[in-house]
User: Which sequence fits this backbone?
């Protein structure tokens, strides 16, 4: 009985230790943007040397429908909307379908302090797939997988 209790306690300790470890790379924490002025880019984004054809089409749609709030190259804009080139939006946390739903239905604020995102009119699922390809290629170039 004592042995079983010891194993359970050790297992719980390992679980808690692993749960509290920060993964390598980008932090999930929202950055402090208090030093930025309204409309300033939040993230520094490196661009890939080339984009896939789908991402190139997605960039056109992104620039037309998303960049006014999320910034050129998804940098985010202080006071408007968050950067999409951020660990919070990595595929394992916000999958591609999350982008589809955000465009179609909007999003209730839950990570950032910018308020709710309204639905985006005039985008098809194919348009959003291109936007996601563009954002994912930007993310990969910036170490977010």
Assistant:
């Amino acid at each position: 009985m004592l042995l079983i209790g010891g194993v359970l306690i050790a297992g719980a300790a390992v679980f808690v230790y692993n749960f509290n470890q920060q993964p390598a790379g980008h932090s999930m924490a929202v950055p402090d943007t208090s030093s930025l002025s309204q409309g300033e880019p939040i993230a520094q984004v490196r661009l890939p040397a080339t984009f896939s054809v789908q991402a190139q089409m997605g960039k056109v749609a992104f620039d037309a429908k998303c960049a006014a709030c999320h910034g050129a190259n998804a940098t985010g804009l202080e006071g408007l909307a968050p950067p999409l080139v951020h660990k919070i939006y990595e595929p394992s946390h916000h999958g591609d379908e999350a982008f589809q739903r955000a465009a179609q239905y909007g999003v209730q604020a839950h990570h950032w302090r910018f308020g709710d995102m309204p639905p985006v009119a005039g985008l098809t699922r194919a348009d959003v797939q291109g936007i996601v390809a563009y954002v994912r290629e930007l993310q990969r170039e910036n170490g977010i997988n």
About this structure: The longest helix spans residues 2-20. Residues 61 and 131 are 6 Å apart (CA to CA).
